[in-house]
Amino acid sequence: MMHSIYPWLKDAWMAIHQNHKLPHALIFKGKEGIGKHDFAIAFAKSYLCQTQLPNYLPCEACPSCHWFPDSHPDFKHIAPIESEDDESSKRKTVRKKNIAIHQIRELSEYLELSAHQEKGKRIVLIEPADSLNQSASNALLKILEEPPENTLFILVTSQAQRLIATIRSRCQLLELRGPSLEEARLFLDGQKIVHEESLLSFTGGSPFSAMKELENQSERSVITQLLAQGHKVDITKINYTILTQGLDWTVNMIQKWAFDLLLSFHTQQSYYFKKEEARIYSQAKQLNLDALLLFTNELNELKKIASHPVNQELQLQNIFIKYKQIFEPS
Ligand SMILES: [Zn+2]
User: Fold this and answer.
1) Rounded distance from Cα 222 to ligand 1 centre (Å)
2) If DSSP codes are grouped into helix, strand and coil, which group holds residue 126?
3) Are 260 and 270 in contact (CB under 8 A)?
4) What digits encode the pLDDT tens for the residues 77-111?
5) Considering the chain, what is the average pLDDT of its residues?
6) What does pTM read for this prediction?
7) Strands, E assignment, 20-109
8) Which helix (H) or strand (E) segment is 124 a member of?
9) Residue 198 has pLDDT above 80, yes or no
10) Which of 186, 189, 180, 185 is nearest to 198 (CA)?
């Protein structure tokens, strides 16, 4: 039953199909790594399917299902592209990707054509919607203000607060919940994915983030070893392989460590780094709380520019200089 819908999303699946007054635009919102993309694709497929199965599943046999997703004339998937003026790839940085205005202009032209199938239904999937840049957002808003008939817009995001308010107010919000730890564990087992118990807590219970993290295991262990050294980290000996996944990823790791330090300070427990719980607690006992809070703020600031072209090695050195300071008495 409902093979293609993840167990934790089945309620949302039924709810959306039993909503007989679908609006012009929907926001699918939920945490990173819980399967929002697959859910949206399955929904679009089922919406356009000519012979839906029980439980609203797409039949996988009609022409519409066969065209999906790449050659369906009534389905448009708008995803971020790299900005052309960006030379950052030479400097090991992750390129900034956006949904640009010309993509929305092309969408607008596409929507002027009539739909291919008889019933005339069309779906536009925008994902992740928080990567719409300012001008693209405004252009999309214009379309949503006078939505073409029989066209359903789906905006997928884990950061709905980053959408402009005028877009949000034109969409109906569908909250997608993530799996419980048990559901996530069962899911990974079902996929025959061998994982450490601690990995799911590290990804906050997101099974797909866990699958992604498995590929970064060596970087993860290098950075964990660095952070575990506390005030003894030798800034001159930082191993920059931890930047392979981009500064954004590295900062994210350090944020989780900082979170665990704070948690451990209050409760003696870790949330993300379960395996390092004892080590983190021994660090937490000697930390300077004010310095840790400052450090956390700095990480947040850095996160904002981490996907921009910056000198990543220098930024990382700075982080570790400040990291050492959180273990110095005030
Ligand atoms: Zn079908």
Assistant:
1) 48
2) strand
3) yes
4) 999 987 654 444 444 444 568 999 999 999 999 99
5) 88
6) 0.77
7) 25-29, 75-78, 81-82, 97-98
8) strand 122-126
9) no
10) 185
Q: How far apart (Å, rounded) are the C-alpha atoms in residues 37 and 29?
A: 11
Q: How far is the CA of 53 from the centre of ligand 1 (A)?
A: 8
Using the mean position of ligand 1's atoms as its centre, give its distance from the Cα of residue 47 in Å.
9
Protein residues near ligand 1, an ion, with CB under 5 A: 49, 58-59, 62, 65
Q: pLDDT of 283-299, one tens digit each?
A: 999 999 999 999 999 99
- The b-or-e profile of 256-295 (16+ CB within 10 A means b, else e) is bbbbbbbbbbeeeebbbbbebbebbbebbeebeeebbeeb
CA of 20 to the centre of ligand 1 (A): 20
Q: Residue 188: inside a domain, yes or no? A: no
Estimate the crossing angle of helix 217-228 against helix 207-214, to 10 degrees: 90
Same domain, residue pair 247 and 298: yes
User: By three-state DSSP, how is residue 325 classified?
Assistant: helix
Same domain assignment for residues 232 and 315: yes
Three-state DSSP state, 297: helix
Model confidence pLDDT, tens digit, residues 201-223: 888 888 998 888 888 888 888 99
Task: Indicate if 140 and 225 belong to the same structural domain.
Answer: no
Structure token pair of residue 52: 């839906």
Q: Containing domain of residue 285, as a range?
A: 216-325
